Amino acid sequence: MANKWQAAYEIIRYTKYVTAYYESETDTLWLKNKSTRTLMCINETPIENIHVEGITESIFSNKNSLDTIAGFNVKRVKIYYLNSAKGKRTFKSKKLRVTHYGIENIGEIILSPFYKIDTKYKKQKQNDWYKRRVLSGNPLEMYMIKSTPMTSVLIMINTLIFLMNLFYIHIKDSMHFTNQLGLTHFDVVQGEYYRLISSAFIHANVEHFLFNIFALYILGKFVESIYSHVHILITYIVTALLANVVSLTFITDSLSLGASGAVYGLLGVLVIFMLINRKINTKLIVQIALTFIVISVISSFFSNVNHYAHVGGLIYGLMLGVLFQAKRIDWKISLPVLVLLLATPIILWSVVLKHDSYQPVDEVGLKYLNEKQYDKALETVNETFQYNKETSTTYYILAKLYDISGDFEKAKENYNKSFELDPENELALKYKLYELRKANDYDSMKKLIDNIDRDHIYDDELRAIEEDMRSKGY
Fold first, then answer.
1. Where are the TPR repeats (predicted)?
2. What is the pLDDT of residue 272?
3. Which residues in the chain come in under a pLDDT of 70?
4. Within its chain, how far is the Cα of 120 from the centroid?
């Protein structure tokens, strides 16, 4: 048998209602739903013992006071009488509709299937526990009460993929899962567009995962409570995708992953909501700011923080926030924002396609090669071939490994394959120039060097060869 405070708590948790006002002298609690312009009162006295006509007349005569309590023009008042025989009586005036409901349990008010599932496993708390949370004036705590199933689903998907990735890394000693789901310029421009979304659900390590999930939990509950399950899903997917497009515009030679772009997108949506609805107050600003300052400061101690994705997610989150509030914002603002939201990704994508691509697994292989970890270098090469993503650099690494092992024929074969695939690859070009210099074929060397953009030579040895040839008059 539910009491008034438990009923109010569950209604706040599973519906759009929030606390409006509590009159301690009469022990009267009002909840409000701004979207439906409704006030709700919960009464523990059975409806059979109530003179509903007298209460209704009092409500009609105090309409202005109810508007003040609610903060909007109240259109409906619903009064629920707990532990009563089922019944309903409705009264209307020109400005207000008042309905009295006799109900046996609060399940008749809360239609969410998640409530019915939750009640099977949840233990009932003390009356004061419910009362403290219902009357809390802290907006952060009020939104934390809300049931947000889509936020929970997103957290569960992130958690499941994170655990699978840990299994591959620590049990199978493989980066397969990371490499298959992470964001890389090379793979996306090759047609693996799913990475623009999949990378937003995979994390590099425990710290990375915990920081993002903590932020997703808080901001997700805010956004889903304020809007809907659909809004948070749209925000997560759209801002993750567009933040990754921004990332690829600037980062072409490494692998990116994590939910941070989407998390900052949720922050952008929330900021616009608070600005438009004048929900900004010092306490709330401090709470949210401290949360992200702590996350940003701690995450800065870890390498490879993708600030481009953070900024991109925030900007597109702000744009979505404006569109979500389109009814309250002048179309002269919302229309240009819509145009920007649609146009900027197209412009950025055209830039992405113009960039040279680098296979990030090759970069890892080169790193192992330079550190003389030849077994690991060979593993990365084999993995690249396994997924048919070999490049000129892959063949160069394989050639170097054959060279080191003493199989010079195989080394030469792969050096030549590397050069054939990409004559502009500095590693392959450098080998080719060494071979020509051994044969004293300086004319052929000159032809190759003439094709080099001398202002954009990054390999020190190749630059030295080019300068030596120039000093000799070639």
1. 392-425
2. 92
3. 1-2, 279-289, 291-304, 474
4. 31
Task: List the CATH number of the domain containing 367.
Answer: 1.25.40.10
In the sheet that holds 28-33, the strands lie side by side as 18-23, 28-33, 38-43, 76-81, 97-102, 87-92
Task: Please enumerate, as own/partner, the contacts of 222-230 that have beta carbons within 8 Å and a separation of 24 or more.
Answer: 222/143, 222/266, 222/270, 223/266, 223/269, 223/270, 224/146, 224/148, 224/150, 224/151, 225/143, 225/146, 225/148, 226/143, 226/270, 226/273, 227/269, 227/324, 229/148, 229/149, 229/150, 230/150
CA distance 473 to 156: 66
Contact 288, 338 (CB under 8 A): no
pLDDT confidence of residue 238 = 98
Identify whether residues 41 and 90 lie together within a single domain.
Answer: yes
C-alpha torsion 205→211→215→216, nearest 10: 10
Q: For the chain, report the end-to-end CA distance as a whole number of angstroms.
A: 95
The reply to whether 337 and 402 lie within a common domain is no
CB 252 within 8 A of CB 306: no
Mark whether 449 and 346 lie in a shared domain: no
- The last residue of one of the domains, among 354, 377, 392, is 354
Q: Which two tokens stand for residue 287?
A: 């709470």
Which range of residues forms the domain containing residue 271? 149-354
Residue 144 domain-assigned (yes or no): no
Residue that finishes a domain, picked among 293, 322, 354 = 354
The first and second tokens of residue 316, run together, are 């597109």
pLDDT tens-digit series, residues 108-121:
888 888 887 777 77
Provide the whole-model pTM. 0.80
The enclosing domain of 347 has a CATH number of 1.20.1540.10
Distances in Å between the alpha carbon of 342 and those of 243, 267, 456?
13, 20, 35
Does 183 reside within a domain? yes
Query: Encoding tokens for residue 53?
Result: 């006509």
The number of distinct structural domains making up the chain is: 3
- Give the residue from 107, 104, 115 showing the smallest Cα distance to 145: 115
